[in-house]
C-alpha cells in the first residue's frame, strides 16, 4: 500500500522467526525478502523456506537506507519511506538571488 509517507508491505512467512529473516535492497531497486523456518519433523531435511522479491517503484523517490522491518507471528511488515524533496538526488534545488 502506498501513502504520502511511503510504501507499506506485508509478507506472510508462517513458521519463520525474525532471527532467520533477511531483507535487502539490490542496486537496481529490487527488494528481496528471505527466511527459513524450523523443521516440523526430525525426518524433514529442511524447514519452510520463503524467498520473495519485488521491484520497488520509483526508487529515486524512496529512502531505501531507512527501511523499517518488523517480524511478528510469521508476518513480515516493511515500511519504505519516501524521500523529502530536499533529500532527493534527482532534484536540484536552485537558490534564487
UniProtKB/TrEMBL annotation:
SUPFAM superfamilies: HSP20-like chaperones. The keyword Transit peptide applies. This is Heat shock 22 kDa protein mitochondrial. It holds the Pfam family HSP20. It comes from Phtheirospermum japonicum. Belongs to the small heat shock protein (HSP20) family. Keywords: Stress response, Transit peptide. InterPro entries: A-crystallin/Hsp20_dom (IPR002068), HSP14.7/HSP23.5/HSP23.6-like (IPR044656), HSP20-like_chaperone (IPR008978). The keyword Transit peptide applies. Residues 1-97 form the SHSP domain.
